[in-house]
Amino acid sequence: MAAQSDDIRVLRFSTDDLPERDRLPIMREVHGRLTARVDIEPAPDAPLHYRVTAYPMSGLVLSLFSVSRTTIRRTRELLADGNDDVVFVAPPTAGNMVSQLGREFSQIAGDAVLMSASDVMRIDALGSQCPMITLSRQMLAPLVPGLEDAIMRPVPRDTEALQLLTRYIRIFDDQQSVATPELRNLVVHHVYDLVALALGATRDAAAIANARGVRAARLHAIKTEIMKSLNHRALSLAGVAARHGVTPRHVQILFEGDGTTFSRFLQDQRLARAHRMLSNPALAERTISAIAYEAGFGDLSHFNRAFRSRYGETPSDVRARSRDSVC
Asked: What does the DSSP assignment read for 138-155?
């Protein structure tokens, strides 16, 4: 099943969307062998559940899986398609058994592994959510010395680049972040940077990655924390920097590279949240002061001044227009 958005092509497949009698054959034959080019065998004693959302871009495909206990194989028969990509697998839960090139191990929660699409492989998934990143071998090989030796070599979950990568790929949740070809091209470069660092990048590639992919991923992680913590009035530059293992000055440099500052970004997001709440007719009974405090402002006078400066109207004006639109 496919969905087309104005911003980015998104491919979706779910057994939940199919009549029960058709779920197994369509999953195995249509999605498995024709689309994903793998054999899929669900556990006979577990309810069938298979869902994938894929974001295909030039040189990269991010796939987010949610599956019941399943065995996924890339067989010798299917290798005839000539696909020589590599696949970076980083499950958040433990227990998946991966096998390839005579090596076999059970993944620890959060550990990642690189696998080869040009070799027979098997994944025994216990039933979990799992992100998989398909990358071009030709594009990744110059960044990672001895790339072939990295296949089936576990990447520990405490590897900094892996931690940044697993947070960074959540950028696909925000379609505006990948809304244009230029933005998607940047995201592809950032993902390659982070995967290369996690596997062991060359000196030159590491220097580029630290100046590009790592900075982007860390800024994205910091912005994500801010967005989730807008109502915490004690949210501070020093506190955010400490939680991300960098200095306050480094955080400021990241925001300066984005054309803003930490404090300006924080205030803009708080004002935007307040504006959305004031524009919501369902919140018409909530006072303006309560909305200001919920958005993270501790001083109502400061909130009113900042709001008027940002939007050219008062909070009361926005609230009144929202009420008028309902009438």
From this structure: HHHGGGSTTHHHHBT--B
